[in-house]
Input
Amino acid sequence: MPHPRDADAPDAASPDNPEDAAFARLLRAADAGQPEAWDRIYALLYPDLHRIAQSQIRRQASPRVSPTSLISETWLRLSGADLKVEDRRHLTAVIARAMRFVLIDQARRALTEMHAEGNCESLHESHARDPDAARVERILSIDQALTRLSAIDARLGRVVELRYFGGLSEREVAEALDVTERTVSRDWRKARAFLVAQLGRDGGDGEF
Output
């Protein structure tokens, strides 16, 4: 279920912060249809996006995908979307989530290709012999568990996306979601317990 803004939530980025103010101006320019503003935003965000992409690839065991290609595909997908973002933290969180969906789509395409090649045995039966099959099974199982978690508690799902997949610290997650670090820590413990229970001890214990 969605959560209201925390009573203990930190204040939004100060308009007096020069970096925050400059980024806010770029967002307004981009929203006004100035394409060069998005180019500047991309350049400013790239170091953070590269770090998040590396974490996503590592977590989803997708060594064939480079951080650069993941960032490029994600940015291309979002370029046609009608994004309404509040600030840099919000935009970074949106992109981190989109990256996860890019990797999930790639895993689903891989599954389709396996079936097209006539591999009729289940992924569970074949993963011991085929590392790619094991990777696809793992990615899709985690995605299904996270989807169930998000349906129950949307914020817990966002914490997992940012903390586990995005590799953000608790402080960064707190800033992105506009809650306290204490809230993020509590949500992370709840989310981990749920996912371990969903995936089973072999699939989740030690993973989160």
User: Anything to note?
Assistant: The CA atoms of residues 31 and 84 lie 8 Å apart.
